[in-house]
């Protein structure tokens, strides 16, 4: 990160528009990664694009987790989105972050999440059986979206009838965690954030029901014992978990199946040997991540290879670029489920104290849903064009995906 440079200190990085970055993010990062450690997103901060810089920047005391600066950069200074994210552990630092995260960490005990695996497999198989005779499926809408929605609803005790509307709200609010949205979309995201918080407030307000739910009971008991988490913060932590546990997993389930079906020999290998499933999940998360970057905020000027990131700037750490960096991976643009050079801690789940609390749950959902598909529908194939992911950072968006099959097993 601090190697000698012939550039004059303080050189401004190349500036690209959101449209340029979104049009072909892998191509843009591939073109510039060996030339520069940084790109500038016009009027919206800087992007670190080399794998070697991710961890040093994440732990650099001259940076901190972004708070509401990303919203402010898009002209959002008040309203439900600001209320939600300003009270969330996701966008907090230091003691405030620890205070908000601790009760949720206890509720997300490993044992509780591991016990969800049979439920996840059962949910996936039930969806397959429901559509089995039809021979085709709206994979994104009826499978990939349904798995995390049903599981988070199960964890929180949300009635099944509420799941479709609840899911729509979640996907709308998650748009605010990206740079790739139009100003005309902001009011819709604000409305969805308000509706989602009102819904969860009602869920928590039914205290008798909440205390009969293992997850909520543990969370509320821990909060009560601590006595230092406000009602607004309690609400925001639940909403944060719902959003984090729904939209990203939805996209990742669709992406991993699409990638495997486009690399048929690797799909067939997984069908023949389910022991390959964890590797297939890890490689899919690397090759086409649904989380394109993690945001930091600079407290001081930071110089990288002669380029300057000024203090008080948004600095995105690009997972999208880092996980295709040839300095980290052999043949990085090749999809290879037998890859052996994954880091011990997968970058997609973040770094440091903000590493994703739901990593174990996300892996369980990805692995169990894939296991159900390869077992029940080994002849699965894409119907129509493969899905594409839009966006170069934050939570990326996936378009539609349909699948079909001829003669399922059993």
What would your notes on this structure say?
By secondary structure, the protein is of the alpha+beta class. It has a single domain (15-404), classed as Orthogonal Bundle (Cytochrome p450), CATH 1.10.630. The protein has 20 helices and 13 strands. The strands form 4 sheets. A 6-stranded mixed β-sheet has the order 1-2-3-9-6-4.
Structural descriptors:
single chain, 410 residues, alpha+beta, Cytochrome p450, 6-stranded mixed beta sheet, 3-stranded antiparallel beta sheet, 20 helices, 13 strands
Structural class, by secondary structure, is alpha+beta
| Sheet of most strands | 6 strands, mixed
> If you consult CATH, what is the topology?
Cytochrome p450
User: In percent terms, what proportion of residues is strand?
Assistant: 5-15%
Residue ranges: pLDDT <50 for 5 or more in a row?
A: none
How would you state the average pLDDT, rounded? 90
How far apart are the termini? Answer: 55 Å
Total tally of structural domains: 1
The CATH superfamily title: Cytochrome P450
Shape: globular
Provide a count of the helices.
20
CATH class: Mainly Alpha
Alpha carbon gyration radius: 21 Å
Helix content: 40-55%
Compute the number of strand runs.
13
Strand arrangement within the widest β-sheet reads 1-2-3-9-6-4
CATH 2nd-level architecture? Orthogonal Bundle
The gist of it:
With 410 residues, this protein is of the alpha+beta class. It is built from 20 helices and 13 strands.
Topology at a glance:
Elements: E1 15-16, H1 18-23, H2 25-32, E2 38-41, E3 46-48, H3 51-59, E4 63-65, H4 69-73, H5 80-86, H6 94-107, H7 110-114, H8 117-131, E5 136-138, H9 139-144, H10 146-156, H11 163-174, H12 186-205, H13 207-211, H14 214-226, H15 231-244, H16 247-262, H17 264-272, H18 277-287, E6 293-298, E7 302-304, E8 307-309, E9 314-318, H19 319-322, H20 359-376, E10 381-382, E11 389-390, E12 397-398, E13 402-404
Parallel strand pairs: 1-2, 3-9
Antiparallel strand pairs: 2-3, 4-6, 5-13, 6-9, 7-8, 10-13, 11-12
